[in-house]
Write a structure and sequence with these properties.
This protein has helices spanning 2-36, 44-47, 179-186; strands at residues 54-56, 86-89, 97-104, 113-122, 127-128, 135-136, 158-167, 190-200. By secondary structure, it is of the alpha+beta class. A hairpin with an 8-residue loop joins strand 3 and strand 4. 25% of the residues are buried.
């Protein structure tokens, strides 16, 4: 009987030691990842939350009607010819400047009717108002600067694409560039684009 008890004691000691080692290993496996975790692991979700390059306007929503004030003021159109205000976020990394075009692709003109061409917008800009100090091109009327919607009075809905180009250059040479001249000038410098569409029609 006494020899059996003596055999059980070493066995019990071995079991307790094994359990202790297993518990210690479990604690170590939980602590080591906490100690070795990089501080940047907490920053990754923040860096991934950069918004996409997006163009908006407080004067109309994407796909919605342009304000009456944006209508042209010649050729039978009676608006104020004031360009909508534009805002943008999520600018691509490496942007040094911007350019903007506004085109009506429903107009019966090859490659559309171009209403506004703006360039040499600084890379720090995040909004554009009708009256601005930046370079403006020759629209399809043809005049320099903004020329608002003036579609035929037939009730047909026209869509005006406001397209903003993020550029890797801060300066585009040339005065009063046309739409095609601007696109040729920026072709090798475009690093991102975003657009918003406004609609307009004149009753028949």
């Amino acid at each position: 009987m006494s020899s059996t008890r003596l055999q059980r004691k070493p066995l019990m000691s071995i079991v307790l030691v094994a359990l202790g080692i297993a518990a210690l290993l479990a604690v170590v496996s939980l602590v080591i990842p906490l100690l070795t975790r990089s501080p940047t692991a907490h920053a990754n979700p923040l860096s991934a939350s950069r918004p996409p390059f997006t163009l908006t306007s407080p004067n109309f929503h994407d796909g919605g009607a342009l304000p009456q004030s944006s209508e042209f003021n010649q050729f039978g159109c009676t608006g104020a010819n004031i360009a909508p205000e534009l805002h943008w976020v999520g600018v691509p990394k490496g942007t040094d400047g911007f350019a903007l075009t506004v085109t009506d692709y429903d107009a019966p003109v090859t490659r559309g009717f171009h209403h506004w061409i703006v360039y040499n917008i600084p890379g720090s800009a995040r909004e554009l108002h009708g009256n601005n100090p930046f370079s403006e091109g020759t629209n399809s009327y043809p005049t320099i600067g903004y020329g608002g919607p003036c579609p035929p009075p037939d009730g047909q809905l026209h869509h005006y694409v406001f397209r903003l180009y993020a550029l890797s250059t801060a300066h585009i040479s040339g005065k009063a560039l046309t739409f095609d001249e601007l696109l040729n000038a920026i072709s090798s410098n475009v690093i991102g684009t975003t657009s918003i569409i406004g609609t307009f029609k004149l009753p028949s």
